UniProtKB/TrEMBL annotation:
InterPro entries to which the protein is assigned, alphabetical: TerD (IPR003325)
Domain of life, source organism: Bacteria
Name of this protein: Tellurium resistance
Species for this entry: Streptomyces marincola
Amino acid sequence: MASLWSYFRRGRAPKQKFDTVGGMSSYAVELTKRSPTAPLTGQGTDTGTLRVDLSWRMRTNTDFDRSHDRARLLRHPLEIFKPAEIRGHSQGVASIDFDLACLYELKDGSRGVVQSLGGLLGDFNGPPYLKLSGDDRFGTGSGETLYVNLDNAEEFKRLLIFVYIYDGAPMFDRADVVVTLVTADGRNVEIGLTDPPPQARACAVALIEHHKGQLVARREVKYVYGFQSEIDRLYGWGMSWGRGVKDRA
């Protein structure tokens, strides 16, 4: 998980990393603006399951204080010689509910969305060959997991992974959020939701399409101030949207 948390430590450059556990080697790569794509299939991984995980860490007031201190020292470098300011401790920022979702378009032209909102959890063994594990509303920092059936990868035309905030204030800028694509052979392709604007409520994270016989993920990280319909318009899905609610059972 070292590569995942490198996004949670602000200011570090993204790196490719290898982790070894019990003699097994797992490969992790972080998609960035300079290196925005990665293959998800090929070399014996054309079948099985692609897993999409959502993780986040809410920033505490201490995080904001450190960021403020760095910005102030850049503007006034001589302040580094002043005595440290004593601040009282205050409670950290409250957790918020981030939701994972996927817009899909199949080769037969059918389009739709897999999301917890409205109970549209999908089907792994039949169209759309996507299944959402369910909704985590307990602020644990681990949201839903999306499972993609690679045995039917040829049925996909395009998949758009996105994250949205259904409940609570729009606070992408108050959290460090990472979406991890775990391939069938155990490679981790990580996308950090960096540089969020204030008041954004949804973020298009990754577009998955076929390229030269492989499924390839391309980093998007494009924020919108609305919900799914605005993501739809941004990518031309052409669906009709209505107001939905989550199943609280």
